[in-house]
Design a protein that fits this description.
The protein is an alpha+beta fold and about 100 residues long. Helix content is about 35%, strand content about 20%. A three-stranded mixed sheet has the order 1-2-3. It contains four helices and three strands; from the N terminus they run αββααβα.
Length: about 100
């Protein structure tokens, strides 16, 4: 199982999201090779986030993905929303260009 698949499966089971997108952005970073799985953008919409502040949402995701973070995932760009928030915006922000230089 790839790291991307692991992240997707773990978040599906742990958050029961109404929307989940996991994008491998490792190719955008100079330190990553062509098959790297070190940098990911995660957009997750879950009712479990209702009433939680942003920091609590990120802690929840990081706790679920603790094993991945200890096994080679260098960075997670987290975009966490409640269904109500997602209905208002409908899209996550674009990822910035890596300061270290990418392809």
């Amino acid at each position: 199982m790839s790291m991307q698949q692991y992240i997707e499966q773990t978040l599906q089971q742990g958050l029961e999201p109404t929307w989940l997108s996991v994008t491998n952005e490792s190719h955008m970073h100079r330190s990553s090779g062509p098959d790297a799985e070190s940098h990911f953008k995660v957009v997750v919409v879950s009712a479990l986030f209702d009433g939680e502040r942003l920091l609590a949402r990120h802690r929840r995701v990081n706790t679920l993905l603790a094993q991945a973070l200890q096994s080679g995932v260098h960075a997670l760009a987290l975009h966490t929303y409640t269904p109500e928030e997602w209905a208002k915006i409908g899209t996550a922000p674009a990822s910035p260009t890596c300061a270290g230089g990418g392809h």
